[in-house]
Design a protein that fits this description.
2 domains, 328 residues, three-stranded antiparallel β-sheet, rod-shaped, 8 helices
């Protein structure tokens, strides 16, 4: 279920509670009003009954037709008074409002031979209460419709910003980091666009930096491979070729002690150079001191070796709060 439907359901439930409370308050007030009206109507019925027994001519139809809550009905000879019963919602409302009301009609035999029925008529009160309920329900329905339309307009406007943000995020997930949101509309939308654009700028800059770093690492790796190949071929390879040639020469000078001693000395010299070359190569690839010494002592050893090899004075200064770093 979407957010709009959930909001509509909450608003409808709230209006239903308010409408029910107002209707209950209206009916409660109507009970008190009906009680007072019926008491007044009972007094009118008694007054008309007494007046009709003394003076039947006082019950003129044009006088009694406009009475509220009182019904005067002329009966034929031998007929009984019958009160028409309401049906439908009027019947339910009548039972609710007039459950304890007195509906019995007074049938009078007048001195002039006519019969008349005078009774309390609750239909006017039912119509008044029903009209009030209809007005309340109509007003609440109109307020509910206006509220739902306003909420729909506001939510649609806000959802438009969210839809645009969702499309932009989908483009970012697809790798399109050059997407930007428009900085317009409500202040919240402008703030959202501002932070989103900052995020995409940072992501694009990070991707550019990563690309540049990757290219730099590849170039450094290629330089290391080239340097390693040149060292193995130009330096160590020559010493190995010389050692091989001198080893073959040993077979030929076994009967010449002076030449044999010279060849052996050259072999030892070549092996020593070869050993130094391998040590330098291993040290360039990964300083062994990093495995056994703290960072500060490893730096100090490196500087000492560099001074010894180059003959250039160098002063090293390391802070005492040098942090511990992982191997990588």
């Amino acid at each position: 279920m979407s957010a709009l439907w959930r909001i509509n359901l909450w608003v409808c439930g709230f209006f239903a509670l308010v409408t029910g409370a107002c209707a209950a308050l209206l009916l409660h007030q109507a009970l008190a009003d009906v009680e007072r009206e019926l008491q007044s109507a009972e007094a009118v019925v008694h007054y008309l009954s007494e007046t009709a027994e003394r003076d039947p001519a006082s019950l003129q139809p044009h006088l009694t037709a406009s009475l509220r809550h009182v019904r005067v009905h002329w009966l034929a000879s031998g007929a009984t008074a019958q009160t028409p019963a309401p049906d439908g919602l009027d019947a339910w409302l009548g039972r609710l409002l007039f459950a304890e009301a007195r509906h019995s009609a007074q049938v009078l035999d007048l001195p002039d031979g006519r019969r008349v029925s005078i009774a309390v008529d609750p239909r006017d009160e039912i119509d008044e209460v029903w009209d009030s309920l209809q007005q309340l329900l109509g007003l609440c329905a109109l307020a509910l419709i206006l509220s739902l339309l306003t909420i729909r307009w506001a939510v649609r406007r806000g959802m438009g910003v969210l839809d645009e943000l969702l499309r932009a995020l989908q483009q970012v997930c697809a790798g399109q980091l050059n997407v930007r949101l428009r900085s317009e509309g409500a202040p919240e939308a402008r703030q959202l666009a501002l932070h989103f654009n900052r995020m995409t700028d940072a992501l694009e800059q990070a991707r550019t930096d990563n690309t540049r770093l990757t290219q730099t690492l590849l170039a450094v790796q290629e330089q290391e491979r080239t340097h390693l190949a040149q060292t193995l071929h130009d330096d160590l390879g020559q010493y190995l070729a010389g050692i091989r040639a001198q080893a073959c020469l040993l077979r030929l000078v076994t009967d010449q002690p002076h030449l044999l001693a010279s060849t052996v000395a050259q072999l030892e010299d070549h092996c020593e150079h070869l050993q130094h070359g391998f040590r330098a190569l291993v040290h360039d690839l990964y300083p062994v001191a990093l495995q056994h010494l703290p960072m500060a002592e490893a730096f100090s050893m490196l500087v000492t070796q560099w001074q010894a090899s180059h003959g250039i004075p160098c002063h090293l200064q390391i802070s005492t709060d040098l942090p511990l770093l992982p191997g990588a």
